[in-house]
Amino acid sequence: NAGVTQTPKFQVLKTGQSMTLQCAQDMNHNSMYWYRQDPGMGLRLIYYSASEGTTDKGEVPNGYNVSRLNKREFSLRLESAAPSQTSVYFCASSENRASGELFFGEGSRLTVL
Amino acid sequence: QQQVKQSPQSLIVQKGGISIINCAYENTAFDYFPWYQQFPGKGPALLIAIRPDVSEKKEGRFTISFNKSAKQFSLHIMDSQPGDSATYFCAAFEQGNEKLTFGTGTRLTIIP
């Protein structure tokens, strides 16, 4: 039972490059989320998807786009990476938006030079 | 502004001691307060949670104390063990807008 799987685990980009972080969950959860974790800032919500076919902005959406490909998969795209996007990114899922209990992946560490 | 304030930022406790992490919130619409535990290189995982209709919840060595009037809640780890060394996040959930807000985290180190 894999839970929430993120790829890649590590990535180094140059400023202006683009990339997509992939996330898949096997728990049949309806809601999926992308967070970024920075020292002293906690976890901040970038985008979420309450159900297949819907996406909404979170607290820090600028510079990112998302796609809810199907119920299992939720990807995060950086179109033109900036050094300020250097962070650890976590994908999470929950049974539904009213649950309050999130299941997290192991994270993707992104460095933008 | 930080809706959930967490302290301390880091904490060192001797093995067998009590670890205490505190959180405070402003939004009275929050109605579910989970704590997440994160080990290095891993994602956060739900540790224990409380709803505001109770003042305390205990699961093994972990206890949440909740003070609704003061808008504060805390995590107590009794008989702290080296395996408890991790980063702990408090969070608050508002069911009305289905939003989970995290504190800034506390790095706990248990020394032998």
Highlighted features:
heterodimer; A: 113 residues; mainly beta; 7-stranded mixed beta sheet; 4-stranded antiparallel beta sheet; B: 112 residues; 6-stranded mixed beta sheet; 5-stranded antiparallel beta sheet; globular
Question: What is the typical, i.e. mean, pLDDT of chain A?
Answer: 94
Structural class of chain B: mainly beta
**What's the total count of β strands of chain A?**
11
Provide the succession of SSEs of chain B. Answer: EEEEEEEEEEE
Estimated helix fraction of chain A: under 10%
Poorly predicted regions of chain B are: none
**Uncertain parts of chain A:** none
* Proportion of residues in extended strands of chain A: over 45%
Oligomer: heterodimer
Instruction: Report mean pLDDT of chain B, rounded to a whole number.
Output: 94
Largest sheet of chain A: 7 strands, mixed
Q: Count of helical segments of chain A?
A: 0
Helix content of chain B: under 10%
Number of helices of chain B: 0
The biggest chain-chain interface is: A-B, 20 and 21 residues
Distance N to C terminus of chain A = 36 Å
Gyration radius over CA of chain A: 13 Å
N-to-C order of helices and strands of chain A: EEEEEEEEEEE
Care to describe what's here?
The complex is a heterodimer of chains A (about 110) and B (about 110). Chain A is an all-beta fold and about 110 residues long. Chain A has strands spanning about 5, 10-15, 20-25, 30-40, 40-50, 55, 65-70, 75-80, 85-95, 105, 110. Chain A is about 0% helix and about 50% strand. In chain A, a hairpin with a 3-residue loop joins strand 4 (about 30-40) and strand 5 (about 40-50). Chain A starts with a strand and ends with a strand. With about 110 residues, chain B is mostly beta strands. Chain B contains no helices and eleven strands. In chain B, strands 2, 4, 5, 9, 10 and 11 form a six-stranded mixed β-sheet that branches. The termini of chain B are far apart. The chains are: A mainly beta (about 110), B mainly beta (about 110). Chains A and B meet through strand 5 and strand 10 of A and strand 5 and strand 10 of B.
